[in-house]
Amino acid sequence: MRRGLIMLAPAMVAGSFASTSYAFADEAKLPATLTFTAYDTGTAGFNIAVGVGKMMKDKFGTDVRVLPAGNDVARLAPLRAKRAASSAMGSGTYFAQEGVFEFGAREWGPQALQIMLSSVDCNCGSLGVAADTGVKDLKDLKGKRVGFVVGSPALNQNSLAVLAFAGLTQKDVKVVEFASYGAMWKGLVNNDTDAAFGTTITGPAKEAETSPRGLIWPPLPAGDKDGWARMHKVGSFFFPQLATCGAGISPEKPIELGNYPYPIFVAYASQPADQVYAMTKAMIVNYDAYKDSAPGAGGLAADRQTKNWVVPVHSGAVKALKEAGQWSDAQEAYNNKLFKRQEVLGAAWAEYGKSNPPADDKAFLEGWMKARAVALAKAGMPNGFED
């Protein structure tokens, strides 16, 4: 598979993604070059982004470069610096919007990320566990080693949410930190950890399944209402789903797990609507050209988009979805409330910055979380991170 591996011109790095910065292809007004970011090479998000990029090359002559990054911060940095046009994110989209965890650091704060398209397919996202541990149910992970990724609040919080399903907390397991998502799954294969969070179709999970250790996915039964209530307190963005594809999973051997949209192709609110519209429109109209390019890509169909999630859809993408007949007045109203939430968070961050916040990083984050809570309460909006 041919991919364009080109560097963005200096003018595009320093300036906005205005149409004057690009040599546009006539047919779809796509730029001649695009850069996406995604998880590590071989992951579902990376593979899907490559598939989308190949479609853009084949259909519009657009060279797409996909930059792999091991954590959410590294994945968003090029997008924020205008060196990338989109990022294939996961639940880190939500944490970045909310300005929590690593995104509560003074270098970041709430990020006005908005969705282009996202995927929900036959796969799910959960903790994969080495079969040789003897673990059958999530509660059996007590005392076991669970992989965390430095600088990736999404992966780490997702792991904690799955543990919460079984009534476990971080104190009940042994956290092993890794530098990247790929390194964490390598750690599982190499017996440096016992469990790692990922989507069931990710390449590293398939590698783990075929390794001497093997791989299982402890179930999260939809009927366990108490378990799901505990999980939602830590990961409100998860929903129950029957996984029918992935490492050790098939339609004949499905597993009840949890899921959320992944990958989520995001852009910043500040990116021009016509640019986001062009990219989204290209993905919708040419869906058949990439839907089978990688496991999970089929979930990007316009009629399979998750409605009313926790992050808004970009106005440019809304236009494309409306043209596809996949947008409603109810979604519009809900989306506008999420736009307002981003405004409230952005204003709260600006005010906090003017309040002479503590120089110490830990104290800075604690102060911000209090200021954030006050601002959201004043606006009549849920906090989501009370604990």
Short description:
This protein is an alpha/beta fold and 387 residues long.
Q: Cα distance, first to last residue?
A: 46 Å
Task: Summarize the biggest pleated sheet.
Answer: 5 strands, mixed
| Rg, alpha carbons | 20 Å
Number of strands: 12
- Structural class call reads alpha/beta
Which stretches of 5+ consecutive residues score pLDDT under 50?
1-27
Strand-and-helix sequence, N→C? HEHEHEHEEEHEHEHEHEEEHHHH
Strand percentage: 15-25%
Proportion of residues in helical segments: 25-40%
Please give the count of helices. Answer: 12
**Shape assignment:** globular
Mean pLDDT: 91
What strand order characterises the main sheet? 2-1-3-12-4
Quaternary assembly = single chain
Labels describing this entry:
single chain, 387 residues, alpha/beta, 5-stranded mixed sheet, 3-stranded antiparallel sheet, 12 strands, disordered N terminus
Summarize the helices and strands and which ones pair or pack.
Layout: H1 10-14, E1 33-38, H2 44-60, E2 63-68, H3 72-80, E3 86-89, H4 92-98, E4 113-118, E5 125-130, E6 145-149, H5 153-165, E7 174-178, H6 181-189, E8 195-199, H7 203-210, E9 215-216, H8 225-234, E10 239-243, E11 255-259, E12 264-268, H9 273-285, H10 315-323, H11 329-353, H12 361-378
Helix pairs in contact: 5-8, 6-7, 9-10, 11-12
Question: Can you walk me through this structure?
Answer:
This protein has 387 residues and is of the alpha/beta class. Helix content is 37%, strand content 16%. The protein has 12 helices and 12 strands. The protein has helices spanning 10-14, 44-60, 72-80, 92-98, 153-165, 181-189, 203-210, 225-234, 273-285, 315-323, 329-353, 361-378; strands at residues 33-38, 63-68, 86-89, 113-118, 125-130, 145-149, 174-178, 195-199, 215-216, 239-243, 255-259, 264-268. Helix 5 links the parallel strand 6 (145-149) and strand 7 (174-178). The protein is globular. Mean pLDDT is 91; it is low at 1-27.
